[in-house]
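Quick start: read one record
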Amino acid sequence: MTACGFTPDQLDAMPMHDVLALLRYWWDAPPTHEILAAVYQISRAPSRCADDPSNIGELIAGFPDGVIRHR
């Protein structure tokens, strides 16, 4: 739920009936980023390393042979 704009503190303070209403709403209209992640089997990206601000090292490590294949 934090990916949809709520902080953990806001969720902790939210009454349970509001949480359940939100979950019922998301059952019918799930957040777009969740649908796309499920369809394309995408997991959360690892956090960036301070030594590699461009994150190119992780990209190279993910495709060591230099070929990006469709899954």
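The CA atoms of residues 48 and 55 lie 6 Å apart.
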